[in-house]
Amino acid sequence: MRTEAAKRVELVFTLFDANDNGVIDSHDFDLMTDRVLEAAAASDDGAKAAIRAAFRRYWTVLATELDADGDGVITIEEFRPFVLDPQRFGPTIAEFAQALAALGDPDEDGLIERPLFASLMTAIGFEKANIHALFDAFGPDAEDRITVATWAAGIEDYYAPDMAGIPGDELVVARV
To answer: Would you say 157 and 163 are in contact if contact means Cβ atoms under 8 Å apart?
Structure first.
């Protein structure tokens, strides 16, 4: 695994541990889902249902694949070596990427404006400066928008263990 991917894994674990108790469990995913849905108030019911389903599937796959001792929680030790395995998580990541990116496009014009992007990413738990650096790395248009496809592809790249120098690396850069 590339160094960049290892940093992304560590960050993802801390984000998924939404209640900050040191492990990931189903309640963390419920909490994160609620925060994301609150940020997506303008989205339609279909988009909201899709992200809810994507978060639920994400938890189910993590619990099935990574909860080695069957205790209902995932520790960093269980999480670290496996979460970037494309064969295990590729379809789950793709579903999540499509659902989250679509949530950022409530008017369904194929474009995501910076304010909603920032709200959704903040709801997930990313740092504000890193969110804006990521958005800039996606190459927004003159009206400060990115495409749904760009964001979805960026999410999938973020979870790829062999990727480096990607826009998603902006999320793990220490900023003041």
So the answer is: yes
Query: With the CA atoms of 78, 166, 33 and 146 taken in that order, what torsion angle do they form, in degrees rounded to the nearest 10?
Result: -170
Statement: residue 155 has pLDDT above 60: yes
DSSP 8-class letter at 76: H
Q: Which two tokens stand for residue 170?
A: 């902006």
For 129-166, b/e burial (b = at least 16 CB within 10 A) is: ebbbbbbebbebeeeebbbbebbbbbbbbbbbbebeeb
Backbone torsions φ then ψ of 121, nearest 5 degrees: -70, -35
Per residue in 21-50, pLDDT (tens digit) is 999 999 999 999 999 999 999 999 999 999
Q: Dihedral (C-alpha) 47, 160, 32, 134: value to the nearest 10 degrees?
A: -80
Amino acid making up residue 76: I
